[in-house]
Design brief:
Its EC number is 3.4.11.1, 3.4.11.10. This protein has helices at about 70-80, 100-110, 140-160, 170-185, 190-200, 200-205, 260-275, 320-335, 350-355, 365-380, 415-425, 460-470; strands spanning about 1-5, 15-20, 45-50, 55-60, 90, 130-135, 185-190, 215-220, 230-240, 280-290, 305, 310-315, 340-345, 360-365, 385, 405, 430-435, 440-445, 450-455. The chain is an alpha/beta fold and about 475 residues long.
Amino acid sequence: MTYKHIQNIDTTKDFILPCKKGDLKLIQQFLPIEKPDFDGSFLTYQLLYGKTGNRIYLVGLGDEKNASHLENTFQKFAFETQKYWGEEIQVFSNDLNDDAILKTVIGLEMAQYVIAAFKSTNVDQKKITTISFSSPKNTDKILEEGRFTGEAINKIKALVDAPPNIKTPEYLGEWAKKSSKEASYKCTVLKQKDLEKQGFDAVLAVGKGSVHPPVVIINEYKAKKTDKFDIALVGKGITFDSGGLSIKPSTNLHYMKSDMGGAAVVLGVIELVAKLELNINIVGIVASAENAVDANSYRPGDVINSYSGKTIEIIDTDAEGRLVLADGINYAIKKYNPEYLIDLATLTGSVVRTLGYSAAGMFTKNQEMATTMSVIGFKVHERVWQLPMFEDYEADLQSDIADIKNYNGKPIEGAINAAKFLEAFTENHEKWMHLDIAGVSFGASPYAKMKSASGYGIQLITNFVKEKAEK
């Protein structure tokens, strides 16, 4: 899609009329009939025809409570109607504020995502339509941000939905390299020998059982003339999780291609921040491996090393995400010493049992970060909910033969246990946050027959970065 600003809509051509629930007064002048059977409810739309036979689409914005996820109504509307659009369609946005226009563009762009990338038959490609937004003030910058954001969401959805035989750790590295050239940031991919030399022992241990070697991806975007990094993002990049020797049940095992959802957010956010040219220095680190079963696989009972120097007793090889994150987090601190450190991971089933599919688990001892992230989460409808980090939970990670064990072996406190494990590798960083996005990164969707990627995290983290950049 291409987006442009216009002063006024041409009522003889196709156009879209967004309207709030129960309030058609603002658009009454454009309606060909006095009382359409439409009340502006969220996720609804109605087609009318103008005097020249042009299409007039009424799109419901719902109530004020729907403002945080306004993109959903436009995604649904465009997904179901854009096959009828011509080369151009207009949006009457005179009565929309900047946030609403931004959300509208994001939704329209999200509707362009094609999940059927690997079908043998040709999938109808979405035709390029120019969408013109009317407004008395120039909205070019908002339209560009909306397009970039929607594109970033679609790109990380494509990554998460990609099959694991294609989406190997090295594939993620190549994706990042290509992205860095397009968006002008620095990308470094550490491969097997680099990881061995630098001491990424936990990442290497997880990847031992796979024919696809692990990598660590480091993406740097620097807008400031200083070597100081404001924010570091660390993502779990397990491209397929069999559970290792602690093998998972076969039910839904095919969905374990999505276990790099945190990595996808990190990759997407760095690209988006670079395209938006935000005034910030940020680094994104992806620790990526495939957790497979082989004669070389690491075992329950093994003791492995880590980048931090701490030794880890392996209780469960299916608690592998926290191992690669431990190396990524510790590397971020020692190499970059960022002011803010955030890691994202599809880490535990426990957080899904705790919060369902409506919010990510948020873990931090920094209440300024927690408050900021919570407010942003509600604003963009990518919600987070804070869970405790009490010292009481540390006893469950004590090991007799190593510095720490990777799993408590209990059917309780799983998400908290994982967060406390990660905390041990943060060097007591005062502004660290862990987000467990297992329940919100991948799930049921009205746009796919099976579970698929949601795109969660791009708006949440980018808005956090924007807030810090503006300060």
